[in-house]
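pinned: reference chain
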Amino acid sequence: MEHQTRVYENVFEMMPSEENPTPLVRINRLNVHAEFPLYAKLEWMNPFGSVKDRAAWELLRDLEERGKLNNGRGLVEPTSGNTGISLAALARARGHRLLAIVPNKVPHEKKVLLKIAGADLEIVSDELCPAPGLGDGSINLAKTYAKAQSHKYVMPNQYENENNVEAHIKTTGPEIWKQTKGRITHLFTSLGTCGTVTGVGRFLRTKNPKIRIVAVQPTEGHDVPGLRNVSQLEVSKLFDPSLVDDILELDFNLAYTRALDLCQNEGLLAGPSSGLILEGALQIAARDQRGFGVMIFPDNIFKYTSNMIKHIPGLEP
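pinned: its structure tokens
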């Protein structure tokens, strides 16, 4: 691996690590709190475009090491898009197939990208997936495949597999600590599978128990793919509430308006979950006045253009 010259023998060498971190970029025009700088960790700079590259790689390697993908056995996984895209691309590059169970509400762009990455898709009706992004119906269907056709499929299960958390203990947490030279006082993230908040939070607390972990959640009835309100977290076994100091419930429309702010004022083409995280960080910066914040920006805006249309004047269908 030649991280300094960025010359690699294969895409797997490009996966993030303490030696090959995703960048931190300071928020300038949108943050008026001079004594509380905010830095965005741009996770769309990962090879397959999101923070989920980290978990997908850890999940896949674990299955391979345990021999779970021998004899042509493939993977089946429920996904709101990002984990599925990462898993599909990584798996196909290593000779495995993925059946992605996807709620119909997932943006069309993500469905197309899943197919491009090599996944087979099964779309689950909205009635079976009442929660935005990913509902119980898709999770249960994936579990059914893994149980009824265990000779054909194994389910990584990002919502219960501790390797999801471990990925962030090994990579994201150490990257942030090294990049900030230990100055970080606040971590800002969202809630989905909760692998990120639990893994990064767990690592940073070993370095400095006083670091505050702040999670944002959209208001109920939201349409932000991949995010969950705390009331929807029963499907995740990875959420550790003892690690989280503040959970901010924010109007889900701010996810889109703040994403536009990032695009148009900072030159950061961040997706809606990043927009909501920025809003939470700005509120905490106004409250605490002093600090050094790092925000996990999960992915970019390109997967959400169809969702963004209603928030951009003159582009309504």
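why pinned: The chain has a mean pLDDT of 93. Strands lie at 24-26, 38-42, 74-78, 98-103, 120-124, 153-154, 186-190, 212-218, 246-250, 293-297.
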